[in-house]
């Protein structure tokens, strides 16, 4: 935007229905878009030319450029990014053509108008509470000949009133075409409705009236949208609705877990109700993780798993017909072939499992003999013999994990042996479950189960004798391997449908506040428990239940369950077969499964089992409230704490 046009705009008379402040704000939006295209250097030059304008404008303009001053709002200002995103998603957007488009806080409306032109929706509702966007950006869209745009200023970003405003939108035929809610039990309730699409920009902070704190809108709305998708509420009452949201990039670690120990109540709750894929961003999720946590920077994921996952995603993209636009890079897709050829191939612990009881007994004997032969040698002060690992990916995984961490080579060698034997244990347990399904019950199976439990107990005792950092390495990397190879994968980042496109800081204004576009597709998960509780009640309990379990994520799952209710683990675990099935992420002995490894399938089963449990507390709210005191207790499990090395037990 040339400076002369800016000077002309600031001198132009304001609209009679706009206050002086609103008029100045609208002009500043023009400045924002112009600077977003021109770059930061030109932005400072433009601001300097506003010397003759009021001090208020100068302060606001400078605050929008100064990276040290937090911004309550960020806008997408790059046409090329919008064009590439729509081209990239085109194969998945075709089914939404002619739909009803609900647009939350479109701001400068650049992405909104581009997507509108592609989808040609029959109805496009713009919900923008900030009036300074109206005249320069929204009004021209409303004034188009034959425009299907609609506009409302309902305040959907205020933390105490936004759901009330959504209810008004859904019930007002002037804002949205009426949709008939589907009755309980209708199978179409849990199917995706392509006739409605929700998009929006959730990069907004609501300033508190007192103090210096602010409320972040993105995590607040995302959690509610996930729960409403599970309960078929609000926009999902006539079928599930897909959502495309621009979010502050800093929230990526809260949405995606790259390793099991970073899972928390928030992203596990999202995973219960939503398929999540990242469409575009400036920094990779791993880079944002590393900038946030020094601990994570030293304990990243194995390069073998990253490369293998990228190959799987590339295959999904080819099947879906998705192509990275020319001139635009994808962030992770190029890593699919970046692993050096000298690095190890991946071998799943769920492959080559025993098919008969005789084969399984032979595998148990071999693993027991190997453990008893290798561990005395590993306890020696020097490495006395070369060891051939059954799972070749363990060697580079431990080497990558140990970079930047103190500790001698002998401890890392011990870690490799224990992880390799731990994966062999998973292989044995998976073979037992497969044989159990075919043979059903026999005395031989009972004996095999007892042998497996005894071997697992021996393995756990050995792991308890090593140094804390060695034990952390074993648990972290063993769980990472289990999470990756189970079906479906545990981590939502491993379930993504495609790779994110590479954006630039100049694609957003202010350019120091990066955004990321996410694609949220509700899952068809059905939490209904007929004749026992309403779906709304089950979903509300599920939200609190997930938070309760993940607040004790370093405990074993039975210990975490017993916090919810007395004898809950003893009664509920047998009702959920996935918990004891290693092929689905479980363990034959549930006490060997930590709460942070619980899957969405397990949580669904536990929630339903809870309502079928005849001994459940009279009020689950009271039970959770009584256990809340345990949240403040430190989880001294040792795996996530930075501690000094101590000598091995002799």
From TrEMBL:
It is found in: Mitochondrion. Residues 629-650 are annotated as: Disordered. GO terms for cellular component: mitochondrial DNA-directed RNA polymerase complex; mitochondrial matrix. GO terms for biological process: methylation; transcription initiation at mitochondrial promoter. Its main location: mitochondrion. One of its GO terms (molecular function) is RNA binding. The keyword Methyltransferase applies. Mitochondrial transcription factor that confers selective promoter recognition on the core subunit of the yeast mitochondrial RNA polymerase. Interacts with DNA in a non-specific manner. This is Mitochondrial transcription factor 1. It comes from Neohortaea acidophila.
């Amino acid at each position: 935007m040339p400076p002369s046009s800016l000077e002309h705009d600031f001198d132009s008379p304001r609209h009679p229905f706009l206050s002086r402040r609103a008029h100045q704000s609208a002009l500043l939006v023009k400045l924002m878009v112009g600077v977003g295209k021109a770059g930061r250097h030109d932005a400072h030059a433009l601001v300097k030319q506003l010397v003759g304008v009021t001090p208020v404008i100068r302060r606001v303009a400078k605050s929008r450029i100064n990276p040290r001053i937090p911004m309550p709002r960020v806008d997408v200002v790059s046409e090329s990014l919008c064009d590439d995103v729509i081209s990239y998603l085109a194969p998945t957007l075709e089914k939404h053509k002619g739909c009803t488009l609900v647009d939350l806080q479109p701001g400068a409306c650049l992405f909104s108008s581009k997507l509108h032109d592609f989808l040609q929706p029959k109805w496009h509702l713009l919900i923008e509470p900030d009036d300074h966007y109206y005249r320069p950006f929204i009004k021209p869209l409303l004034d188009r000949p034959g425009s299907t745009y609609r506009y409302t200023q309902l305040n959907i970003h205020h933390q105490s009133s936004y759901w009330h405003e959504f209810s008004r939108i859904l019930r007002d035929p002037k804002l949205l075409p009426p949709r008939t809610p589907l009755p309980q039990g209708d199978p179409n309730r849990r199917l995706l409705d392509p006739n409605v699409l929700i998009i929006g920009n959730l990069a907004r902070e609501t300033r508190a009236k007192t103090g210096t704190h602010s409320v972040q809108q993105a995590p607040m709305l995302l959690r509610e949208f996930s729960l409403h998708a599970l309960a078929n509420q609000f926009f999902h009452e006539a079928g599930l609705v897909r959502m495309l949201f621009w979010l502050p990039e800093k929230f990526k670690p809260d949405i995606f877990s790259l390793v099991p120990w970073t899972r928390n109540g928030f992203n596990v709750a999202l995973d219960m109700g939503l398929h999540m894929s990242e469409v575009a961003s400036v920094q990779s999720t791993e880079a944002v993780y590393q900038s946030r946590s020094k601990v994570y920077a030293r304990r990243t994921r194995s390069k073998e798993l990253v490369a293998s996952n990228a190959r799987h995603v590339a295959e999904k993209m080819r099947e879906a017909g998705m192509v990275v636009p020319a001139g635009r890079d994808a962030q992770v897709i190029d890593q699919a072939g970046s692993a050096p050829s000298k690095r190890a191939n991946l071998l799943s612990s769920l492959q080559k499992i025993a098919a008969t009881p005789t084969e399984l007994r032979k595998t148990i004997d071999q693993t027991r003999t190997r453990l008893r032969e290798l561990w005395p040698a590993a306890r020696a002060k020097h490495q006395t013999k070369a060891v051939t690992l059954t799972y070749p990916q363990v060697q580079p995984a431990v080497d990558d994990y140990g970079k930047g961490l103190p500790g001698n080579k002998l401890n890392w060698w011990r870690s490799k042996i224990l992880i390799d034997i731990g994966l062999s244990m998973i292989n044995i347990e998976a073979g037992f479950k497969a044989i159990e399904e075919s043979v059903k019950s026999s005395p031989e199976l009972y004996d095999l189960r007892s042998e497996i439990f005894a071997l697992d107990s021996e393995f756990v005792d050995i792991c308890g004798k090593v140094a804390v950092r060695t034990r952390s390495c074993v648990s972290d990397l063993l769980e990472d391997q289990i999470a990756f190879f189970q079906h479906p994968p545990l981590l939502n980042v491993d379930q993504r449908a495609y790779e994110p496109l590479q954006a630039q800081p100049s694609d957003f204004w202010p350019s120091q506040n990066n955004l990321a576009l996410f694609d949220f597709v509700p899952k068809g998960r059905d939490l209904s428990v007929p004749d026992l509780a309403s779906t709304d009640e089950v979903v509300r309990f599920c939200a609190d239940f997930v938070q309760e379990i993940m607040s004790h994520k370093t405990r074993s799952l039975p210990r975490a369950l017993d916090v919810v209710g007395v004898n809950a683990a003893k009664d509920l675990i047998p009702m959920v077969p996935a918990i004891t099935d290693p092929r689905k992420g479980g363990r034959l002995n549930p006490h060997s499964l930590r709460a942070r490894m619980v899957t969405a399938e397990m949580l669904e089963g536990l929630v339903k089992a809870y309502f079928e449990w005849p001994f459940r507390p009279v009020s689950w709210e009271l039970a959770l409230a009584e256990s809340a005191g345990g949240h403040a207790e430190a989880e001294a499990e040792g795996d996530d704490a930075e501690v000094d090395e101590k000598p091995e037990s002799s």
